[in-house]
Design brief:
Length: 355
């Protein structure tokens, strides 16, 4: 029996990952540690919560005593670390929460892993792995040309979010270089799919189209993102966790770049069709608003290393992924209503009122 500690498993990507691990590996014990911040939701995991090989622990990755007790209690063999503050706009408003969870939380997890696995010397590191899930935003911003981020691209983060993720990546590598901790890092592009909190572009805009609310496009809508369906990211994490080379970094991306405004037009077209509205009905909701401070112009990932070494490629055509995603949010009205009640209303007013 292998015991895997997944952090942030009640969030968007984490819940998709936990579902796959629990169902695909009945001989693994999956322990999901999540603080259940506004972004974490146990509803995302209703279908696996009764499984024998699944345990949920509500707790903070900054609680070092809790971490030490979990490594021991569950004899943890591997960590897949996703817990983070993940929204760029929130990091502009409250950078401290990002330094605390993303930097300090990662450091506490690393130290607890080192203490537990290395208690009797470095032999204890054999067969263990600390897998850190990171982002392409650590590489900074590209021009509107045909360059890509590779694993060799120099780090150049611009937002407090990406600075905190870059810092956490450096700590993970430092624990490998200094203490010999077995680690892998992956840096992925923008994910989309079900169960994403509606503060991020795609679920926010689908929800607003449905409710005939303005669609706040930052700046001129000309920023470019490389979109990947969340199931493809999870498949990459599973593959890298099992087959990746220790100490390595793998970039994960969709080779699927879209200017925001073009993506938004596809969302409108798809949502209007699924809502039974005439084509073009929601075009008038597009509203250009003040740009995000320090807004990175373009992200684009070269994932050839992952493809060449481990045979991974994205599986889904973007239009098909968007159809499925719009359908999921329109069909899961109750989920959307629940996550957008309470704190969300305050967030929305602060973020978009008078923007
Ligand atoms: P999310 O915001 O949806 O989920 C984050 C989860 O972490 C939530 O369940 C939250 O409750 C939990 N969490 C937050 N602080 C915690 C703490 N102190 N202790 C324990 N749990 C805590 O995030 P996501 O979009 O699923 O991203 C997951 C990871 O993947 C993050 O590390 C993010 O940087 C990375 N990533 C995300 C994307 C993307 O497009 N969403 C792309 C590349 C990388
Ligand atoms: O690249 C990976 C990253 O992708 C992850 O590490 C982050 O966790 C994730 O949040 C995401 O970051 P972005 O900032 O790219 O995603 P977001 O959905 O917030 O924004 C996507 C683009 O849309 C970006 O150019 C900003 C723009 N945007 C966003 C919002 C929320 C708008 O124009 N209007 C909006 O209201």
């Amino acid at each position: 029996m292998k015991s895997i500690l997944v952090t942030g498993g009640a969030g968007f990507i984490g819940s998709h990952l936990v579902r796959v691990l629990v169902n695909k590996y009945p001989n693994y014990n999956i322990i999901n540690l999540d603080k259940l911040t506004y972004a974490g939701n146990l509803e995302n995991l209703r279908d696996v919560e009764e499984k024998e090989n699944y345990t949920f622990v509500k707790g903070d990755i900054c609680d070092f005593q809790l971490l030490e007790s979990l490594y021991t209690k569950y004899s943890i063999d591997g960590v897949i670390h996703l817990a983070a503050e993940s929204h760029v706009d929130r990091s502009i408003k409250d950078p401290f929460a990002f330094a605390q969870t993303n930097v300090m939380g990662t450091l506490y997890l690393l130290q607890a892993a080192k203490n537990y696995w290395g208690a009797n010397g470095k032999e204890g590191f054999q067969g263990k792995l600390f897998y850190h899930v990171s982002t392409d935003e650590v590489y900074g911003s590209l021009e509107l040309d045909n360059t890509f981020f590779t694993e060799q691209t120099t780090y150049d983060p611009h937002s407090p979010y990406s600075a905190s993720k870059a810092s956490s990546d450096h700590f993970v590598r430092a624990y490998s270089d200094t203490f010999g901790l077995p680690i892998i890092i992956s840096n992925c592009s923008n994910n989309y799919g079900s169960y994403q909190f509606p503060e991020k572009l795609i679920p926010l805009f689908i929800n607003n189209i449905k409710n005939n609310k303005p669609l706040p496009v930052y700046g001129k809508g000309e920023n470019v993102r490389d979109w990947l369906f969340v199931d493809d990211h999870v498949r990459a994490i599973d593959l890298i966790f099992h087959k990746g080379r220790k100490g390595e970094t793998y970039n994960i991306g969709g080779f699927n770049e879209w200017k925001n405004i073009d993506l938004i037009k596809i969302l409108i077209k798809t949502a209007d069709k699924q809502l039974g509205r005439a084509p073009g009905t929601s075009d008038s909701l597009i509203t250009y608003v003040t740009d995000r401070a320090g807004h990175d112009l373009r992200y684009a990932i070269d994932s050839s290393k992952l493809h060449n070494e481990l045979g991974w490629s994205p599986s889904l055509q973007f239009e098909e992924g968007i159809e499925k995603t719009v359908k999921w949010y329109l069909e899961n009205e109750e989920w959307l209503k629940r996550v957008t009640s309470g704190e969300y209303k305050k967030y929305y007013t602060e973020m978009y009122h008078n923007r």
